[in-house]
């Protein structure tokens, strides 16, 4: 398995069912015009480049019926799960909870808070709303992983240096093996993405590993 591309890996490789595809925050709020990402001054099309690669990974996982987990950065309508420090942050035109062209920004159930249509989740796939940047804080993710017997995470999504990296660090501290798919993650700031890829696998995989989607798919083809 490609958790180990860079060097010999001394641990047992995961079996089907022990690894999941984790898709972080591929939601309209971040990827479409008029959402939170654009209101913060970002060029949202930068993030869209990874969509075809994500579709290839999804196709493989769906075909094999391997676990797929989506997250959404999402808050309760009364903002009771959004600390004032987060609410006040940012220089954007719109703040969390404000009414935007796709409904209230980053609020559960609003049109902008849905996964983009190209990656719409299917029946049986997990969707985890998360109030933080990391996917473990104040969510059922750990319970789901434990119940399903998942030990290895193949991580994708946006943005590389914020929610993706936070989630990988949280997962690493909890003992999960993590691999970040280099061409299935994106940032509004390409230099931040590159720096994050480098820091994750530095020092012998201090947070985890990285590999391209082709490398991951080739390795997965060898798993039955
Ligand atoms: C951000 C995220 N960047 N999903 N969220 O605020 O990375």
From TrEMBL:
Residue ranges annotated for the Isochorismatase-like domain, each copy included: 20-208
Keywords: Hydrolase
Protein name: Cysteine hydrolase
CDD domains (UniProt xref): cysteine_hydrolases
SUPFAM superfamilies from the UniProt entry: Isochorismatase-like hydrolases
Gene3D superfamilies xrefs: Isochorismatase-like (3.40.50.850)
Molecular-function annotations in GO: hydrolase activity
């Amino acid at each position: 398995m490609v958790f180990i591309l860079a060097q010999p890996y001394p641990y047992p490789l995961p079996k089907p069912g022990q690894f999941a595809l984790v898709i972080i925050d591929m939601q309209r709020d971040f990827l479409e015009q008029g959402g939170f990402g654009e209101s913060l001054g970002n060029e949202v099309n930068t993030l869209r480049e990874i969509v075809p690669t994500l579709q290839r990974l999804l196709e493989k996982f769906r075909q094999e019926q391997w676990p797929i987990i989506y997250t959404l950065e999402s808050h309760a309508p009364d903002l009771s799960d959004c600390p004032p420090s987060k609410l006040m942050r940012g220089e954007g035109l719109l703040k969390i909870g404000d009414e935007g062209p796709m409904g209230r920004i980053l609020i559960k159930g609003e049109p902008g808070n849905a996964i983009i249509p190209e990656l719409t989740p299917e029946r049986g796939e997990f969707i985890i709303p998360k109030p933080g940047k990391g996917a473990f804080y104040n969510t059922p993710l750990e319970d789901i992983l434990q119940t399903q017997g998942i030990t290895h995470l193949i991580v994708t999504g946006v943005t590389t240096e914020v929610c993706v990296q936070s989630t990988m660090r949280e997962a690493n501290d909890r003992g999960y093996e993590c691999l970040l798919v280099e061409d299935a993650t994106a940032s509004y700031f390409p230099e931040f993405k590159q720096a994050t890829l480098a820091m994750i696998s530095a020092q012998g995989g201090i947070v985890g590993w990285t590999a391209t989607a082709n490398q991951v798919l080739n390795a997965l083809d060898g798993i039955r």
